[in-house]
Write the structure tokens for this entry.
Amino acid sequence: MAVLFRPFFPVDKSHWAPVLAETLADLDFRVFPDVGNPEDIRYYITWNLYKGDRIAWPNLKAVLSMRAGSDWYIGHPEAPVNASFVRMIDPGLTCSMREYVAAYVLRLHRELGSIERNFATMGNWNVLVPKLASERSVGFMGIGHLGMACADALKPFGFQLRGWSRSPKNLTGIETFSGDNDLDAFLAGTEILVCLLPLTPGTQDILDRQTLCRLPKGAALVNVARGKHLVENDLVALLDSGHLSHAVLDVFREEPLPDGHPFRTHPKITATPHIAAVTMPHTGSKKLRETIDLLERGGTPEGLLHPDRDY
Ligand SMILES: NC(=O)c1ccc[n+]([C@@H]2O[C@H](COP(=O)([O-])OP(=O)(O)OC[C@H]3O[C@@H](n4cnc5c(N)ncnc54)[C@H](OP(=O)(O)O)[C@@H]3O)[C@@H](O)[C@H]2O)c1
């Protein structure tokens, strides 16, 4: 049984390949393009499927993704038909998402961006009376693996936490909403909206004028899910009209964000280059090892894609 790793980023060869080689030392670990005998390949660890790739390895059991989302894989013309797909659920990635979301929610809550700007440009020394966290509502659109981790990180501050999902949930310390029928109520009471939905046909363009208008005046958005959740012109119109106060965006319809894109300079937009959460070599390799071991024992790993249920 061989495990094939396909490096993509320059750091993959220097950071990932050695850690994977060590974690999978007792297995036949190979690094692309050294495929060897195609019949040996049982697991394929990759960030992507590449045009023209022939993943027709007859004994391939699973494609193990380095990425947290599944949207890139579903319907991919190169996706092998008889192999399973497992997305990455890495404790290191979860940790980095928790830090990012907590950092920006706190920043928005304390209005630190405008305070810093006013001080830098006008020397503004006015004392503001900030809202208490207990007076501020933070709503997670998507309260799955990452949404839950981020909400948990915010609990100690005392925010009013809310979560919207597909199916009903009962979560300690989080007011829950589900499905289309609850969306109005969820949005109407959310002052800082964090999007952590997967990108599916049902969620694409969900952050449009109609949805964002239903947030209270002065609400802010943090989108750390996928760029295609957001209708960009609708966001700009609502920021310009003052209905929304600020948006923190880590993901974009086109990445890298093109030069001259209005998001790069809009005063009410904070943009980061898709860095909210990163798969980490040590924790990610350990997770891949656990997934392989579980699949070998006939188990169901976390992150296994069920296309009928998940899409
Ligand atoms: N910016 C970054 O660096 C970065 C890094 C990692 C991940 N991400 C993004 O984060 C996303 C979420 O990851 P995750 O691990 O938390 O996913 P997850 O565990 O699958 O959770 C997804 C959540 O969204 C809900 N949901 C799905 N479809 C819905 C719909 N149509 N209506 C309402 N709720 C819906 C699910 O509800 P149910 O539980 O009821 O199904 C669940 O609560 C990923 O798909 C990826 O796009 C971004």
